[in-house]
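Bench notes, afternoon.
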Amino acid sequence: QVRLVESGGGSVQAGGSLTLSCEASVSAFTIQDMAWHRQAPGEQRELVARITIDGDIDYAESVKGRFTVYRDNAKVYLQMNSLSPEDTGVYYCNVNLRWGNSYWGQGTQVTVSS
């Protein structure tokens, strides 16, 4: 059973910063890509950032220039700067393995107050 352990959520004021981290209990060689998704109250879950094993990165338009995703072996991080209330939500780590299995973390709450 693959486990994803997330940390780093919390409450900040607008303009502040947070860094989320997620560690997967798998060998880095089995990973195809790692991603962060978020779900705001009453909204659907959306992709925030994804980084592939080859280092290709995608960001949601709303976070470009403010968020940075990076990984170190089986850990993925999301550095979030210039946070706004619109960034509030539960952030989920997602890991996709080379043979198609997909796993999700339990989610970590990020709350940005104005």
